[in-house]
Each structure stands twice: as structure tokens, then as C-alpha cells.
Amino acid sequence: MKRLSNLGKDLFGFALLAIFLFLFFQIDTFKQGEGVVPDPWMNVNTIFLGIVIEAVPFILLGVFVSALIQIYVKEDTIQRYLPKNAYAALLPAAVLGAIFPICECAIVPIVRRLIKKGMPLHVGVVFLVAAPILNPIVAASTYFAFRTDLTVLYARMGLAFILSIVIGGLLYVMFKNSDQLKWTKEELVGRVPVQSDMELKPKMNRLKQTLYHASDEFFLMGKYLIAGAFIAALFQTFLDRNILVTIGSNEWSSTGVMMAFAFILSLCSEADAFVAASFGSTFTTGSLIAFLVYGPMLDLKNTIMLFAFFKSKFVLAFMITVTVVVFLAVMVLQFTL
Predict the structure, then answer these.
(1) 99, 78, 98, 100: which is closest to 89 by C-alpha?
(2) Is the dihedral of CA 143, 146, 148, 153 positive or negative?
(3) Would you list the DSSP string of 286-312?
């Protein structure tokens, strides 16, 4: 029964991939045939393709790094370099997030692989929320989008660094180092521990193993990315934004509205600053900061990936924690500036 369930998921993923390729290559035909596809659905198609095309390069980066970790990083290496004290490990994890130029599209497979290799859950959480914001590419794009008001840049980077540590600490209190990953039957069989596959396939060289794992993870992650992108495109097309703009007229409601926008729009963290800047005349500075901090930590497409690879209880706790912590921190920031 389990095998049939997995087969169904794989077939669904391949069907989504086939639809994506069909829409990608036939979009000009649809545009030329007036009335063939209603305008709102053409807009869904355009937004969907935009999200997927923007995210795919980063997914490829993420699964390739994940594969390198699988092949070259040993469990005892992770254990050796991490501080033994759980809370002391939070700061190095946030600093590590500032080094890697990885967006929220790519971070899920990397964190999943690191946790499988022995990284504590709460350290993985810090890396999960910090890396998509605290990297040089995001800092540069935020600088160029808000170069007339660098308060947004400083607030985004400062809050991301501090809140990633806070969120990691809170998740540690809730779950300690319990196993919150979903494991397949194949993974459970060889889980003592999750070694590089050099021992299982000694004849296969490391380059082949890396490519094998990268392709396997890409198709695994890709189907959830496509599903998330499609749902995000539906929301962007059919949600009445005028209502949200009306609601977002003060500090409290505008912060909530922009966080909702960030979740629904599912923008890549390297590009979201320019979208946020376009809302500058409508929303408060604090709500724009909330948009820029919350979106890379949690959006529709990475939520679907999280539910696919982590236990539901953990994902729900993670979502609530990130939402509450970011909202309260931005409110404090707005009333103290």
C-alpha cells in the first residue's frame, strides 16, 4: 500500500512537471488565440511560470549542495565542530547563514540533509530562517531597492540575525533534539547512521554519487515547488488586493497584511526587496520590513516542502513561532523608531 502511495505521488509530480513544460512551450500559442484561455487563467500561467523559472536555479543549487553534503560530510565532523551546549550553538548557526548565498527555495533540502547527517534540529532551524536573508546577494538587492532609506536594510539584516537565534531557541525548548524528519522506508533501513553512500556503492565514484543524489533530490523537491507555485499563482490572481490595502492602513493591520502578502506571493529573497519598494507609498516602513523578514522565512512554496519532509506537528509549531516572533518584533521596532 505504501509503495502504491509513493508511486501515486511520483506520478502526480511527473504530471505537474509535464504540465509546466507544456505551458512553458505553448504560452505564445495561448496568447495569440484570443478567447482560448480566459485572461485570469493566462495571468495564473504567467505568474506560475515566473515563480518556477525564478526558483529552479536555486533549487538546483540547493540539491547540489545537499548532494555534496551527503557524499563528503561525515556525521562526526558535524558533531566535532558544533558547540556541545545547545544554546551556544545558535550563534554560530546564524553566522553560518550569513556566509552562504542560498535563498528559501534551496535551503529546505540543505537543512534536511544536514539534520540527517547529525545537525541538531534547532541549529537547522536557525540556518533555515537565517540563510535566505543574511547573505550578500540579498543585502545587495535590499541596498539598491532602498538606497534612499537604508533603515530598511539595517532593520532587515539586524532582525533576521536576532530573530533566527530566538526562533531556534524557542523550537529547542519545544522539541529539544527529537527527530522531526519524515523518513522513507529505504532511509530507515540504512539509517545507522546516514552515511555517504561510498560504503553502499564502493564502485561508484564520488562525482557519480553526487550527481545521482542531486537528480534524485531535484525531482523530489521539484514536484512540491511546482504545486506551491501553482497555489501561489492562484492566490495572486484571484485574491482582491484592494481589500488588503484598505485593511493595511495602520501599523498593526498593515504589518499583518504585508506578512500575508509575503507568504502568498512566495517571492525569491534575492528579488523581494524591489517588490517591497513598490509598496512604499501605501504601507508603513515597519510593514515593509515585516514583508522582507517574514517572506524568506516562511512562504507558500517552502511551507509545502516543509510539510513534505518534516512532521506536521513540527511544521505547525515552526509556522506559528515564526509568525508570532516576526510580528511582535516588527511592532516593537515600529513603536521604538
Answers:
(1) 78
(2) negative
(3) HHHHHHHHHHHHS-HHHHHHHHHHB-H
What's the grid cell of residue 185? Answer: 522506508
How far, in Å, CA of 204 to CA of 70, rounded? 14
DSSP string, 181-203: B---HHHHHT-SS---TTTT-TT
Q: Model confidence over 233-282: pLDDT tens digits?
A: 787 688 766 766 666 667 788 888 889 888 987 777 877 887 788 777 67
For the chain, the distance separating the N- and C-terminal CA atoms, rounded to the nearest angstrom, is 58
Mean residue pLDDT of the chain comes to 78
Beta bridge partners of 181: 310
What are residue 310's DSSP bridge partners? 181
Domain that holds residue 80: 2-336
Q: Average pLDDT of 12-36?
A: 63
Residue 16, amino acid? L
Single-letter amino acid code for the residue at 314? F
Check residue 313 and give its pLDDT: 95
Q: What pLDDT shows up at residue 203?
A: 46
Q: How many CB atoms lie within 10 A of CB 215?
A: 13
Computed from CA positions of residues 266, 210, 10, 178, in that sequence, does the dihedral angle turn out positive or negative? negative
Q: Of 118-122, 156-160, 328-332, which gets the smallest average pLDDT? A: 118-122
**How many structural domains does the chain have?**
1
Backbone angles phi, psi at 181, to 5 degrees: -85, 150
Place of cell 545547545: 86
pTM exceeds 0.85 for this model: no
Q: Which three cell numbers stand for residue 242?
A: 484592494
